[in-house]
Amino acid sequence: MGRTIAEKILSEHCQREVRAGEIVVCDLDFLMAQDGTAPLAISSFEKMGVQRVFDPQKMALVIDHNSPSPLESVSNLHALMRNFAADQGVFLYDVGEGICHQLVPERGHITCGDLVIGADSHTCTYGALNLFSTGVGSTDLAAAMMTGKLWFKVPESIRIILRGKLPPGVYAKDLILHLIGKFTADGATYRAVEFSGQLVADLSMEARFTIANMVVEMGAKAGIFEADERALQWVTERCPRTPRVIAPDPDAYYLQTMELDVTQLSPQVAKPHQVDRVVAVDEVAGVRIDQAVLGTCTNGRLEDLEVAAAILKGRKVYPEVRFIVVPASRYVLLEAISKGIIEILIKAGAVLVAPGCGPCVGTHAGIPSDGENVISTANRNFRGRMGNSKANIYLASPATVAASALAGKIADPREYLER
Question: Is 26 annotated to bind ligand?
Fold first, then answer.
């Protein structure tokens, strides 16, 4: 019997053929930690009595969750990270550089066929590049920093075949929200989800990152796209290493195979306080909105800002809505400035904050008040996720968020795009 993409990548990295269910120890291609997890990883690493990271060219630290620092205690943790990076020679992305899950692929650290871990649950984002990436705990990361290896249980795989074309006003975020609603929050727990089908060729790389980013919200260990020319061009323009394209065997075993035709899909919204409480936008249209957030590691890329700007151009955000825009990286911000996107957003009434994660994780830069409703392009809407357990978070695409910011209530973006 053939092997899935996950089985093949893990086999390559432990130098023997393995199958789902086996426990393996694998060599790693890249490691990452952000400022919410790196301090504990550094502390654990030092307690192990090790002097040097296994390979400084294979590790990055990113200051993005509290960036710039809102507190003295956080500033001291940032200083710890800066000192460690300087001493060890690992890559450091400091305040304002952007979100870890944008920077790791954007700066060319990874390529097709890699095995990557990060001390952040949305490390699965990188699977858009036909690689296996997953989030781990800080102590596991510390062990990997020492050895360059980590243990894995080879996951069973689910195959999702995407067909048709996304209708106007419907985007990758709507597609992944729809899938999460179908699978539920734990329907793919510890599975690798493979994406293939005719629709994939139509999806931009930004769209693929959005989908891979959120597979963890259905419990998945990894989300992996099959590679095509678009993916290869994207990665070879950034990473100097030769990509190793990994395709599943025709007779690979899948725990489940789902075929989804997206032709009739409508804009989707996840209701508070669970990501899998997904409904069509018309079921929640009219709900009052106090704050709208465009950004995060899910939807803060250039394409996302462009979609919102197309809706907001020449219009004004509803007077009682705070519209917060967070580009995913410094590069994205500069590109958006050069294309006039930022000007459109600011003229519409947006508040621009530094590239980072602040509003999404509720550390700063947009914590809502008690009872307020927020619509966000983020990946999670758990109670308290944005820093206030008494606020309500709705998740949607950049288009739906922009339309809702204009209307002052949850709105169908197709109405604005038609105009």
Answer: no
User: Would you list the DSSP string of 116-181?
Assistant: EEEESGGGGGGGGGSSEEEE--HHHHHHHHHHSEEEEEPPEEEEEEEES-PPTT--HHHHHHHHHH
Domains of the chain: 5-260 (3.30.499.10), 268-418 (3.30.499.10)
Is 239 annotated for ligand binding?
A: no
Please state at what angle helix 341-348 crosses helix 330-338, rounded to 10 degrees. 90
* H-assigned helices in 267-319: 296-299, 302-312
CB 199, CB 165: distance < 8 Å: yes
The gap between the terminal CA atoms of the chain, to the nearest Å, is 53
Q: Is 360 annotated as a binding residue?
A: yes
Cis preceding linkage at 243, omega within 30: no
> Is there a contact between 398 and 307 (Cβ–Cβ < 8 Å)?
yes
pLDDT digits (tens, 9 = 90+) for 308-360: 999 999 999 999 999 999 999 999 999 999 999 999 999 999 999 999 998 88
Query: For residue 345, what are the CA distances in angstroms to 85, 250, 335?
Result: 36, 47, 14
What are the helix (H) ranges across 15-137?
38-47, 72-88, 100-106
Cα–Cα distance for residue pair 357/365, rounded to 1 Å: 9
Contact between 243 and 111 under an 8 Å Cβ cutoff? The reply is: yes
pLDDT tens for 198-212 read: 999 999 999 999 999
The pLDDT assigned to 308 comes to 98
The rounded distance, in Å, linking the Cα atoms of 73 and 144 is: 27
What residues contact residue 103 under an 8 Å CB cut-off, 6+ apart? 60, 62, 93, 97, 329
Please give the structure tokens belonging to residue 93: 């992305």
Q: What mean pLDDT is reported for the chain?
A: 97
pLDDT digits 0-9 by tens, 276-302: 999 999 999 999 999 999 999 999 999
Closest CA to 400 of 313, 315, 282, 321: 282
Give the residue among 124, 227, 210, 105 at the shortest CA–CA distance from 166. Answer: 210
Pick left, alpha or beta for residue 130 (phi over 0 → left; psi -120 to 50 → alpha; otherwise beta). Answer: left
For residue 282, the 8-state DSSP code is G
Any idea what DSSP says for residue 240? Answer: -
